[in-house]
Amino acid sequence: MFVRSLNNESQLLRKIAEGDQHAFKIIYDYHRRAVYARAIFLLKSEVLAEEVLQEVMLKLWQSAGKLTDETNLGAYLTTLTRNRSFQILRRRVLEAKTEIELRKDWTESHNETEEGILLADTQKILADGIALLPPQQKMVYELCRVDGLKYEQAAQCMNLSVETVKSYMKLALRSLRSYMKSHTDLAVILIILKII
């Protein structure tokens, strides 16, 4: 899935290596559809394809200075997209195998109705705790834990540094753990550890 290259691609890559965001936007806008289409073809998931697009473009931003004038950027991005998509697919296969193995080993009897009620109550308490977080911490928590964004992506969305996002996440998790401990008993805390 090669796309024709821009006339001034080498020049834009040099500018990106110097930190020129406008040059990066030109290349991003030019290649984003091809990268996204390739990822969605391989992964069959819009969410995962968007994740791959962001990671591939982040890699381009970081490695622009290492690319030579002879680099076929379309081919380079296709290779990055394919490799990252395959990594995700391998991870999903491994997770599925692990889950199957865990289910085989889990012979403990349990009451699904009672656990369902307990889980619903726990999720309600967690939602209450999230609602009490300061706005920045709440937004970071929701972007990273609910929407599944990486810290770098959340930082970009919020126009913050990655370190600031990590700091907000630590504070949010500390607050939520404290809130949950004061509003639940020990059995519920074990379930919470899987949620938070």
What attributes characterize this protein structure?
2 domains, Rna Polymerase Sigma Factor, Chain: A, about 200 residues, mainly alpha, single chain, Arc Repressor Mutant, subunit A, about 0% strand
Can I get a quick summary?
The protein has 196 residues and is an all-alpha fold.
Write the SSE topology:
Blueprint: H1 9-17, H2 21-43, H3 46-63, H4 73-105, H5 112-131, H6 135-146, H7 151-158, H8 162-183, H9 186-195
Helix pairs in contact: 1-2, 2-3, 2-4, 3-4, 5-8, 5-9, 6-8, 7-8
Report on this model:
Helix content is 79%, strand content 0%. It is mainly α. Helix 2 runs antiparallel to helix 3 and helix 6 packs across helix 8. It is flat. InterPro entries: RNA_pol_sigma-70-like, RNA_pol_sigma-70_dom, RNA_pol_sigma70_r2, RNA_pol_sigma70_r4_t2, RNA_pol_sigma_r2, RNA_pol_sigma_r3/r4-like, WH-like_DNA-bd_sf.
Question: Total strand count, please?
Answer: 0
Globally, the shape reads flat
Mean pLDDT across all amino acids: 81
Largest sheet: none
H/E element string?
A: HHHHHHHHH
Query: In angstroms, what is the radius of gyration?
Result: 22 Å
Write the CATH architecture name of the largest domain: Orthogonal Bundle
CATH class placement of the largest domain: Mainly Alpha
Strand content: under 5%
Number of helical stretches of at least 4 residues: 9
Protein name: Sigma-70 family RNA polymerase sigma factor
Domain RNA polymerase sigma factor 70 region 4 type: 127-176
Domain RNA polymerase sigma-70 region: 27-92
Keywords: Sigma factor, Transcription, Transcription regulation
